[in-house]
Amino acid sequence: MSRPEGDREITLLRPYLLTSGRSQPVDQTIEIEAQVLTAHLAERSANGLSFELRDIVSLCLQPLSIAEVAARLDLHIGVARVLVADLVASGYVTLARPEVALNTNLDMIERVIRGLEAIR
Hints:
The chain has helices at 5-18, 51-59, 66-72, 77-89, 106-119, and strands spanning 35-38, 64-65, 93-96.
């Protein structure tokens, strides 16, 4: 099934708009496996946020990895990293970072990829 040309342009433009044109998060060290959790009372104060940011705050009442947030909200992983980093910087969510360097563990990387493919 092909998309009309106008839909493709909107799809390509949307991530740019969501991140205000930024392609890198304010904290470039955030791993896609980092667990995101809504900060205490943040859900109540999230009314002034954009839809996507509010969705992340609502979704992360239970810990989810950035990769899971991206998959569940149908966001590009880079966009999810930028938005989560913004929420961390403003205190709406907290991150639990992995304790070991998972990026050197090829088995872990393959499991993450298979898990993300299974979500789709």
